[in-house]
Design brief:
Blueprint lengths: L11 E6 L5 H12 L5 E6 L7 H9 L21 E4 L2 H5 L8 E4 L5 H4 L6 H20 L10 H5 L11
Parallel strand pairs: 1-2, 1-3, 3-4
Helix pairs in contact: 1-5, 2-5
Length: 166
């Protein structure tokens, strides 16, 4: 799969987790579906290990196909990032240095961990759907949902916002 070049007027946002198998993939899928004219979305993992089939299923239920995505490391991305959103504590703690990128942590529960004791995929899907919907709400609220970023700077050069004067 070839990634199109990032637009010069949209910030490049990397959603980073450990495995790049579930939460970061969902976030990339939502961002591409909900904010295609606002951000250039990417995902990666600090220790990628393949897409989670239940994450693919959860996103397919809402009409977003992430089955063609691949798990990758940040150094495999074609362009430098402006913003790195870590979506799990482990990725936040081990986030690689990305010169020029601002790192923002927005942690989400780990559906595979929550689903470990489930007796069936249907039972597990409750966790995947909840986290999917939480990630959707976060992405839909971008840029306001990104701590330290203003809507004006987000649509332009993606610079941190100054302290609010409100």
């Amino acid at each position: 799969m070839t990634t199109p070049p990032a637009s010069s007027n949209r910030p490049r946002v990397l959603f980073l987790c450990t495995g790049n198998s579930c939460r970061s993939q969902m976030a990339e899928g939502w961002a591409k579906a909900l904010k295609p004219d606002v951000i250039d979305a990417f995902s990666a993992g600090t220790n990628p290990h393949g897409l989670n089939p239940l994450a693919i299923r959860a996103m397919k239920e809402v009409g977003i196909d992430i089955s063609t995505h691949s798990s990758k490391r940040p150094d495999q991305l074609p362009v430098p990032m402006d913003i790195v959103v870590t979506v799990c504590d482990s990725a936040h703690e081990s986030c690689p240095v990305m010169p020029g990128a601002r790192v923002v942590h927005v942690g989400f529960d780990d559906p595979p961990r929550l689903a470990k004791g489930c007796a069936s995929d249907e039972e597990a899907m409750v966790h995947y759907r909840r986290v999917r919907d939480e990630i959707r709400a976060f992405v839909a609220g971008m840029p306001a949902s990104l701590p330290g970023w203003s809507a004006m700077s987000f649509g332009q050069a993606a610079a941190p916002s100054a302290q609010s004067s409100r």
